Amino acid sequence: MNRSSNYSTSYKKNKTSGFRKFSQNHKGRKILKRRRKKGRKIL
Predict the structure, then answer these.
(1) Measured over all CA atoms, what is the biggest interatomic distance in the chain, rounded to whole angstroms?
(2) Of 20, 21, 22, 18, whose CA–CA distance to 10 is shortest?
């Protein structure tokens, strides 16, 4: 709960920077998930 509240306040303060950080994290998570899935399939 604390993390969500802090994230919302920071996001409101800096919408552009917050959006960029969120997009970068989202892309990174997608890549990690894809790599993990490929690794599991190979294993």
Answers:
(1) 45
(2) 18
